[in-house]
Amino acid sequence: MRLLVTGGAGYVGSHAAWAAVDAGHEVVVVDNLSTGHRDLPPPVELVELDLLDAEGLSALLARVRPDAVLHFAARAQVGESVAHPDRYFRTNVVGSLNLLEAMRDAECGRLVFSSTAAVYGEPESTPIREDAAMRPTNPYGRSKRMVEELLEAWSDRGWVHSIALRYFNAAGADAAGRTGERHDPETHLIPNALLAAAGKRSRLKLFGTDYPTRDGTCVRDYVHVSDLADAHLRAIDWLEDGTGAAAINLGTGTGYTVREVLTEAAAVVGAPLVFDEVARRPGDPAVLVASFERATEILGWSPQRDLREILASAWEWHRR
Ligand code: UFG
To answer: Is 9 in the pocket of ligand 1 (CB under 6 A)?
Structure first.
């Protein structure tokens, strides 16, 4: 298929773009390079364009005529979204609306959307199923939920059918070292832990030790970015015949505490990891663990890589 990958120069988007090329698809990447990097996607056409440029986007869809779109382009920092909600609603919601209008006009009817566990907010029970209440606690999660609602409306009209993939904690890097995580600033636990153990950044802060969990620190479900990429390819295949606006969790069903991740990270780097225990980070739920039954049922997907492989691949990427 001919695929348009928005945000294909970013972390998850570049892994999916490589996976699509590996699977024999023809790929065009569109990215405004605000947080993406030119050297992360595969060597395919990279169009430098902002999704807020509705005219440019329409012209691009009319020219490329993709069979399906993988939509990653978005702002994705929870903390920043609290400080600047306007930016999040504009980029994530208006940008997606522009894309959906351009797809409708170009009669491109298939979309895979990069959504997030943040649409759920503080869960009532765990593991989280897709039919759990959605009460996002920050503008980032709200903006992603709003796009899911646009997708439902587009599907109801028969314009675009879609699958929203709700990632839990994306981590790790391409096994071949072709792309990996490069955020600035980096806020995520795994890269920060690896770089701290390697002495490449200042001491790590462990946010909150008084959560009601087995060791007092937050529990998260870390899912390998290459497993996420694989799910996108399965979603495209499903959309060849499938209709509707599905929403599917992508996680492993296994949660690790922050302390457990730090112990494993130190083992992978082979150096002790010193950290400071500090107050909770506002907005962090105690436990986020996915039920991935629906992903198995609809996509035949299950995670293939564990925490050790996540840490080893991420460390290999950062070490290089
Ligand atoms: N943490 C630390 N120190 C750090 C970084 C993180 O202790 O330097 C802790 C956090 O408090 C949290 C855990 O490590 O308990 C994981 O934090 P991350 O920042 O790596 O990931 P989050 O769980 O906060 O974020 C993820 C996704 C977001 C999504 C969010 C939903 O990256 O896109 O889950 O809550 F919005």
So the answer is: no
Q: How far is the CA of 188 from the centre of ligand 1 (A)?
A: 6
DSSP 122: S
Ligand 1 pocket residue status of 92, Cβ below 6 Å: no
Q: Minimal CA–CA distance to 307: which of 270, 265, 246? A: 265
Q: Please report the domains of the chain, with CATH numbers, ordered by start residue.
A: 2-171+223-250 (3.40.50.720), 189-220+253-319 (3.90.25.10)
pLDDT tens column, 29-75: 999 999 999 999 999 999 999 999 999 999 999 999 999 999 999 99
Gap between the Cα atoms of 256 and 287, Å rounded: 9
Q: Calculate how far, in angstroms, residue 218's C-alpha sits from the geometric centre of ligand 1.
A: 9
pTM score, two decimals? 0.98
Q: How many residues does the chain have?
A: 320
Token pair in block for residue 202: 């200042």
Structure tokens at 304: 């293939």
Question: What does the pLDDT look like over 85-131, one tens digit per residue?
Answer: 999 999 999 999 999 999 999 999 999 999 999 999 999 999 999 99
291 lines ligand 1 (CB under 6 A): no
| Kind plus residue range of the DSSP H or E element containing 224 | strand 222-224
